[in-house]
Amino acid sequence: MTTATKRRRRPERPKMTEAEAKTFTRLSVAIYAQIIEQLACDCEPYADTFTFNRWIAQGMAVRKGEHGIKFHTFVPVEGKTNDDPEAEPYLLPRTLVVFCRHQVEAKP
User: Which end of the chain is more exposed for a tag (fewer CB within 10 A), N or C?
Assistant: First the structure.
């Protein structure tokens, strides 16, 4: 006998505006160093390198076949609201990918 499992859908993130895509609330020296170490050009992290979704919000598209720069970071996550409403936020390890300005082009 098989049992159907109910899939949880991720809540949809609100669309990012162009101004939001160019600003950062958390800047990290460690992330800056990881990106600089892997960059082959003279692009500046937090100014010329953004994630795929940030480039899309700025009206740009990553060229087909381009490979991004991977780096490791910790992402803040809100505490679980179903089990304990007073749970504190915590950090999860993530690998993120950024693309520099030489890897994108304006959307048609």
Answer: N
Are 57 and 16 a contacting pair, CB within 8 Å? yes
Within 8 A by CB and 6+ apart from 15, the residues are 57
d(CA 95, CA 66): 17
First to last CA, the chain: 51
Every domain of the chain and the residues it spans: 27-106
* pTM of the shown model: 0.74
CB atoms within 10 A of CB 31: 18
Per residue in 55-79, pLDDT (tens digit) is 999 999 999 999 999 988 888 887 6
- Report the C-alpha gap between 90 and 78 in whole angstroms: 7
Q: Is residue 50 a contact partner of residue 98, using CB atoms and an 8 Å limit?
A: yes
Whole-Å CA distances, 55 to 9, 67, 101, 107, 108: 25, 14, 9, 10, 14
d(CA 16, CA 22): 10
